[in-house]
Amino acid sequence: MKLRIAAAAAAILFVAGVGVGYGAQALRPTPDVYRGKSPQDAAKALLDIAQAQSGKNGSWELIGAGRVYYLGGFKAQGQEIFDRLIAGKHEDSDVYRIARVYAEAGDWDKAKPLFDRFLADNPKDAKGFAEVGAYYLLQGDRAAAERLFDRALALEDRDPWMTEHIAGAYLGVKPQE
């Protein structure tokens, strides 16, 4: 009896494993996805696969796909991904990453409230204050930027990356991710 149960369990696990393996195979791009297609059609097909590869819990990966859509001229599709992520359960870092995309796209009116929300929710994130301050400075708001820099340095004054973000902003250099 125990042998039959073990054999049945092994068969179920094997079939489940094959299904998972086959499903993962289906999520792999092939040259057929992009060869001979317009750049937009190739990108859309690849982004569909990237989103499927991201799964349900791949918020960073989904933000990456949303970024490519948004910056690549398909803002509505990118916005849809961002709205879906923010409306559901998400990490504070997701809000920050989406704000970065908006800033990169030159959509400061969308980036600013998300950056501000992130800082309000993360009052001890020195690097966050420095980076957001850099974005403020790049937008021409030196007073707000320097308040954020002051806050960052009050929290942490030995991080070379933070110091570089602050210095770069004065030279028009965006913070590096």
From TrEMBL:
Keywords: TPR repeat. InterPro entries: TPR-like_helical_dom_sf, TPR_rpt. It comes from Luteimonas gilva. TPR repeats lie at residues 92-125, 126-159. It comes from the Bacteria. This is Tetratricopeptide repeat protein.
